[in-house]
Design brief:
The chain has 226 residues and is α/β, with parallel strands linked by helices. The chain has a single domain (23-222), classed as Vaccinia Virus protein VP39 (Rossmann fold), CATH 3.40.50. It is 34% helix and 23% strand. It is built from nine helices and seven strands. The protein has helices at 10-17, 28-35, 53-56, 72-84, 89-97, 102-110, 128-131, 148-158, 186-195, and strands at 41-47, 62-69, 112-117, 135-139, 167-174, 199-207, 215-222. It has a seven-stranded mixed β-sheet with strand order 3-2-1-4-5-7-6, with helices on both faces. A hairpin with a 7-residue loop joins strand 6 (199-207) and strand 7. Helix 4 crosses helix 6. The longest helix has 13 residues, at 72-84. The radius of gyration is 16 Å and the shape is globular.
Length: 226
């Protein structure tokens, strides 16, 4: 199945969206604020991570982060950035928004303990150990699905191994010209969450100042303990 790609290649995307300028009004601050509601966790997997996991990590407290992405170049960028332990401008603003200090950021960098090259939209290719974690996130990944049925299927399969009490969070940007991307709606998220046996704690469509992506959907969910 052919799938739409991100708007820029790995290096250009990293330097455009995750360099020195924090782009207020494009949903990032809303996502960080939402992630602050997640309690400390031992294990966290970021699906379709790209090179951006450590931005979201500023709002989280996870001991072991696994970043999964189909593009090894993006994961290499993330790994090298974690090795340096030095926040870029966008991360410094995120730290301030989350009331975190530089020592906290160093801890977050050390939490990146593994990466995995895999196509997350083909969820049956992912090992259960990657999905059976305390926190499962995706930022932009599910928006690349091509139809409501594809979205619901991937969402359900990705969360199959989430344990009781496990958390799920994410965001998907809505393109101004969707082409082959799925049309995201509230009912689509709600149906997918029910199928995955997740309780939606938050679901919101936030306006964005980015003309290419004028809205972003954010959600926080939990599999209730049995």
């Amino acid at each position: 199945m052919n799938r739409p790609h991100t708007v820029l290649d790995a290096n250009a995307y990293w330097n455009t969206y995750y360099a020195d300028t924090f782009r207020f009004g494009q949903g990032t601050e809303h996502i960080l604020d939402l992630l602050l509601n997640v309690p400390p966790v031992r294990t966290w997997t970021d699906l379709g991570a790209g090179s951006e996991s450590l931005l979201w990590a500023t709002a989280l407290d996870a001991h072991h982060l696994t970043a999964v992405d189909v593009d090894p170049e993006r994961l290499a960028t993330l790994t090298e950035f974690a090795r340096t332990g030095q926040p870029r401008g966008v991360h410094q603003v995120a730290l301030a928004l989350c009331d975190r200090d530089l020592d906290t950021f160093s801890d977050r960098c050390r939490s990146l303990t593994s990466t995995l090259v895999a196509d997350c939209l083909t969820a049956d290719q992912l090992p259960p150990r990657v999905l059976g974690v305390d926190l499962l996130t995706q930022f932009g990944l599910l928006g690349l699905c091509q139809s409501p049925a594809h979205f619901a299927d991937v969402f359900t399969r990705l969360h199959t191994h989430l344990p009781g009490g496990g958390w799920a969070a994410g965001a998907n940007w809505v393109p101004a010209h969707p082409k082959s991307r799925v049309h995201l709606t509230r009912s689509l998220y709600q149906r997918a969450a029910r199928a995955a046996d997740l309780h939606l704690l938050h679901l919101e469509r936030v306006p964005s100042t980015d003309p290419q992506f004028p809205f972003v959907w954010t959600y926080l969910a939990r599999r209730m303990p049995r």
